[in-house]
Amino acid sequence: MNHCWCLFYILVPCFSNFTAPMGTVLSPDYPEGYGNNLNCVWLIISEPGSRIHLAFNDFDLEPPYDFLTVRDGDQSEATMLGRFSGAEVPSHLTSNSNILQLEFQADHSMSGRGFNITYSSEQTISYLKIYLY
Ligand SMILES: *[C@@H]1O[C@H](CO)[C@@H](O)[C@H](O)[C@H]1NC(C)=O
Ligand SMILES: [Ca+2]
User: Fold this and answer.
1) Fewer Cβ atoms within 10 A, N terminus or C terminus of the chain?
2) pLDDT tens-digit profile of 84-126?
């Protein structure tokens, strides 16, 4: 018998929600390499009326097949704030709403180091202060 099952790409799901006011989102097994066939969705949920700030401490994904998509809100069609791949560390970004969605996809081969992203949430007032500063 010919074992063709190996040709099917089985996506390993990984989901989690972050509700603490600040925290760190790491790719699976960071910094050892994240592996293959991933479709991860992380939601960062802050207080209504606040915004979430992302700072990329480290970033290394196999371009262009592995990438991270950041969306403003929890819907799959929510506005995309950025899509990142490769080894260039993205500049920081801030949500417009109180929910940020990070979706990480990796294909069937090759892995980079992964990513280390810290987030913090700010009430809109203090966000404006920081923004104007
Ligand atoms: C993620 O980056 C932060 C800031 O550079 C660092 O303090 C922390 O140790 C890193 N986490 C890991 C698991 O490397
Ligand atoms: Ca890959």
Assistant:
1) N
2) 999 999 999 999 999 999 999 999 999 999 999 999 998 865 5
Confirm whether 129 is domain-assigned: no
Q: Is residue 3 part of a domain?
A: no
Domain containing 26 equals: 15-122
Residue 32 resides in a domain: yes
> Is residue 133 one of the residues assigned to a domain?
no
Please report the beta strands in 1-97, taking only residues with DSSP state E, as ranges in sequence order: 12-18, 22-26, 38-45, 50-60, 67-72, 80-84, 93-94
Question: Taking ligand 2, which is a single-atom ion, which protein residues have CB atoms under 5 Å away?
Answer: 62, 65-66, 106-107, 110
Ligand nearest to the CA of 119: 1
Q: How many domains does the chain have?
A: 1
State the Rg of the chain over Cα.
Answer: 16
The Cα–Cα gap between 29 and 35 comes to: 8
Q: Which of 25, 60, 116 to mutate to test the pocket of ligand 1 (most atoms within 8 A of CB)?
A: 116
Q: What is the CATH number of the domain that holds 35?
A: 2.60.120.290
